[in-house]
Design a protein that fits this description.
mainly alpha; 4 strands; elongated
């Protein structure tokens, strides 16, 4: 029963975001629409925002697929009953990590897309090729209260939460954990394996543990995304 409740909770966080964003376009003649605009204007800002939103919607479909499969394998009887932090697991454990890591890569991109939308909507003038979400929200949240953009402090406080997995419900520090996991995947070694060397010390965590932290971080990212995306599209259209 406990496992069933965990699965039900995690699936409740995999949100249906696409239906909140219609396929918006700007008509200019019967049966014709403007596909895009390059330049400096409210219309060009709208299409810049729309490009970012469409990117997130595409990512979200792939994340949902990965999370559904990750839940299926991570909560399988074989993985739950036979997990060993030292020994190599079987095929189902491999697939659980595989789909978790797929979702981690794409969820990290959503955070950058949120920062891009803030840059466009609030006319921050940042070079889009140099924006990193953590640095941007740290900078914006440190401004005097009279100059601070509404909502950025809440985002930065979430990104910098102190780790706490003793809480009932959503754990604190999920983003920091997933960010560190992703960085290890990219720069160090596979975090789903044992490593005891000068290069790295690592003992794998159960897939269900990583999955809870990932899905809770994904859910929070979509809440922040929805707010700024709806504002950007409604204003600029």
């Amino acid at each position: 029963m406990l496992i069933e409740n965990e699965i039900k909770y995690l699936k409740s966080l995999i949100v249906d975001i696409e239906n909140k964003f219609q396929k918006l376009s700007i008509p200019y003649a019967p049966g014709k629409v403007i596909m895009g605009v390059i330049g400096t204007s409210d219309v060009s800002d709208y299409y810049s925002s729309k490009t970012v939103v469409d990117t997130v919607l595409s990512l979200d479909k792939k994340i949902k697929l990965s999370l559904d499969k990750a839940i299926e394998y991570a909560y399988s009887e074989v993985v739950l009953n036979n997990f060993n932090p030292i020994l190599e697991g079987g095929e189902e454990e491999f697939l659980a990590y595989y789909y978790i890591e797929n979702a981690i890569y794409r969820t990290s991109t959503i955070w950058d897309c949120i920062a891009q939308l803030y840059n466009i909507y609030h006319n921050l003038g940042k070079d889009q090729n140099r924006i990193h979400y953590h640095g941007l929200f740290k900078e914006l949240s440190s401004k005097p209260e009279t100059e601070r953009i509404d909502g950025v402090e809440k985002i930065f406080n979430y990104l910098d939460e102190v780790d706490d997995t003793t809480l009932v419900g959503r754990w604190n520090g999920n983003h920091g954990y997933i960010k560190q996991y992703r960085n290890k995947m990219i720069h160090r070694n596979a975090p789903d394996g044992l490593s005891m060397s000068n290069f790295d010390m690592n003992m794998k965590s159960p897939p269900v543990y990583i999955l809870k932290r990932l899905i809770e971080d994904y859910f929070q990212s979509m809440l922040f995304f929805e707010k700024i995306a709806l504002a950007a599209l409604n204003r600029d259209n």
